[in-house]
Amino acid sequence: MLRTITVDKDTTLEELSRNVLSARVRDSQGEAALNRFRDLNPHVDPDKLSAGAVLILPDVAGLKASAGEAVAKVPLTSLKALVETALGEAADNLRGRVEERSATRSKMAKGLKSAAFKKILNESDLPNTLAKDTSQSIGEEEKKERDAQERFAMVSEAALQALARLDKIVS
User: Fold this and answer.
1) 103/156 same-domain check
2) 58 exposed, middle or buried (CB, 10 Å; 0-12, 13-18, 19+)?
3) Which of 70, 93, 116 is the last residue of a domain?
4) Are 58 and 84 members of one domain?
5) For all residues of the chain together, what is the average pLDDT?
6) Residue 135: pLDDT above 70?
């Protein structure tokens, strides 16, 4: 089972390994454990472990029984469910607002094409490009919204994939 450890003072991986590896570990086992540690903690500079950093300890032979705390799967499952729910609600909210604005833009576009608007435009001092500029602006706004939805979908997928990778590590 994977374990975590919180660094209590600034240290290095070499110093930390003396505290978490059993004295009877052979060099090859110790090196394998350190390599697995690096794989599990790619965000960490092994030469500068800061106090307060939470590190994942590998599930390897030679690790002291007292080293770190067991990683529980239940909190991760709860976190994953919470993130999935929040992302789903945010996506629904975004979709609803986009649909509202799309309906409003559709009404505006229909109004801009109407004979009544064209008549008013021709009889006023408003520039003839008003309808064209407004239509162009509507198109740009729609593109920005599509782009925002695509970015949100990509970020959501990346977050869920990261949680799935973490789940595999913990399992």
Assistant:
1) yes
2) buried
3) 70
4) no
5) 81
6) yes
Q: What is the pLDDT of residues 42-55, one digit of tens each?
A: 888 878 888 888 88
Which tokens go with 79? Answer: 């976190």
Query: Quick count: other Cβ atoms within 10 Å of Cβ 50?
Result: 11
Same domain assignment for residues 57 and 81: no
pLDDT at position 22 = 60
Please check whether residues 25 and 95 belong to one and the same domain: no
Q: Kindly list the distances between the CA atom of residue 120 and the CA atoms of 8, 103, 109, in Å, as whole numbers in the listed order.
A: 75, 23, 15
Which of the pair, 25 or 128, is modelled with greater confidence? 128
Q: Which domain holds residue 51?
A: 3-70
Give the separation between CA 7 and CA 68, rounded to whole angstroms: 10
Q: Quick one: average pLDDT of 111-122? A: 86
**Residue pair 146/94 in contact by the 8 Å Cβ criterion:** no
Total number of domains constituting the chain? 2
* Phi, psi of 69, rounded to the nearest 5 degrees: -125, 145
What is the per-residue pLDDT for 146? 93
Task: Please tell me whether residues 13 and 47 are part of one structural domain.
Answer: yes
Same domain, 90 and 66: no
User: How far is the CA of 60 from the CAs of 43, 75, 101, 154, in angstroms?
Assistant: 20, 23, 56, 35
